[in-house]
Specification:
The protein has 10 helices and 19 strands. With 352 residues, the chain is of the alpha/beta class. It binds beta-D-glucopyranose.
Length: 352
């Protein structure tokens, strides 16, 4: 079978390799991969800037945004051949820390967690993969290939859950949200905001291309100016910063009104100081702001994501997947095009 393999820590060594088919353990599912979404983390791994191979081995199978169909399942488990499934990314640390012990492995406290396709465990970018049922989530078969959006949606489902927890005791109640960045994470965060009945505003520098129209057809107001202007107009109680661009992060912290919750979801390049710590501290203390970062997702968030996608307009979700490339041409998935939102490697396309 074919699989995309990378050498973490090395730039440019990734290739499509002929791998041995995995042997299913008696408690495991065997899953035939249908699609793999690609994101900035995969790009960082390909560039040698992130990622860890399994101990004692130099290479790793890439891929953490999965969709597949069960080929074989243990008898008596909740999965059966033909089910559409997505694999959870993270596995608890072996110690386990107090969070991993409670199944909240997305909040792992000792850094000993592992992640499929990212940290020490082979990913889902191979034609056949094995998966433990407790780390598999069923998705609605009517979604077809759109089920591959479950993992990025799980990340925003977790973010909204954490926002709820912070807002629970806060004043004022949640009515309006501003989201910065209309990439897949920003657009999926907007979808979940709309599904919660909020007034949602989306800010992105793109003035043309698919993003403004995707926002409008979701009933979301689209902005492409400054964060402070969007904040004045939207009066958001919460901002979800989805770009990681240091300028935008600084604008969000400085441009939002008192008592705003700011959830940071993007990863930034480091090395540039845009704001001094004293100013930042005063923004937070004197304005009762809450700023928190959020990454990864646990089983509950994957289940919430699968439900959110099943409830969404499939035509709108289809427009998020702006490019599908066959496995044989997988490198093209990492070409950057202005109109890209989510690119997917289509394992069902046999073009070689
Ligand atoms: C994935 C997360 C993961 C993070 C860091 C993201 O792209 O969606 O599941 O925790 O990368 O490894």
């Amino acid at each position: 079978m074919r699989g995309i393999i990378v050498t973490p820590g090395t730039e440019g060594g990734a290739r499509l390799a002929e791998l041995e088919e995995p042997e299913r353990g008696e408690d495991q599912l065997l899953v035939r991969t249908m699609a793999l979404g690609v994101c900035g983390t995969d790009r960082e791994i390909l560039d040698g800037r992130y990622g860890w191979a399994p101990p004692g081995r130099g290479w790793l199978v890439l891929g953490h945004e999965s969709l597949g169909r069960v080929a074989a399942a243990p008898s008596g488990c909740e999965f059966a051949a033909g089910d559409f499934v997505v694999g959870i990314v993270r596995r608890p640390d072996p110690a386990p820390c107090v969070c991993c012990a409670r199944g909240e492995f997305d909040m792992c406290r000792n850094g000993g967690y592992r992640e499929r396709g990212i940290k020490e465990l082979d990913g889902y970018g191979a034609e056949l993969v094995t998966l433990e049922p407790e780390f598999a989530v069923k998705v609605d078969p009517s979604l077809g290939l759109l089920g591959v959006l479950t993992e990025p949606t799980s990340v925003v489902a977790k973010a909204w859950e954490r926002i709820d927890r912070v807002k629970y005791q806060a004043c004022p109640p949640l009515a309006s949200a501003l989201i910065t960045g209309a990439g897949p994470i920003g657009l999926l965060a907007a979808l979940l905001g709309v599904q919660r009945g909020l007034e949602v505003h989306l800010l992105d520098r793109a003035r043309e291309g698919p993003k403004p129209e995707l926002a409008r057809s979701l009933g979301v107001s689209y902005h492409s100016g400054k964060v402070a202007d969007a904040c004045r107009e939207a009066e958001p109680e919460v901002v979800l910063e989805c770009t990681g661009a240091p300028e935008l992060v600084a604008e969000v912290v400085q441009g939002s009104a008192p008592a705003t919750v700011e959830c940071l979801l993007g990863v930034s390049p480091s090395g540039r100081a845009l704001i001094d710590v004293g100013t930042l501290n005063n923004e937070l203390v004197l304005e009762n702001d809450v700023v928190f970062g959020s990454v990864n997702a646990n089983r509950r968030h994957f289940a919430a994501a699968a439900d959110a996608l099943a409830a969404a307009d499939p035509d709108w979700l289809t427009r998020l997947i702006t490019r599908r490339v066959p496995l044989a041409a997988w490198t093209e998935a990492f070409d950057k095009r202005d109109t890209d939102i989510k690119t997917v490697i289509d394992f069902t396309d046999d073009t070689r």
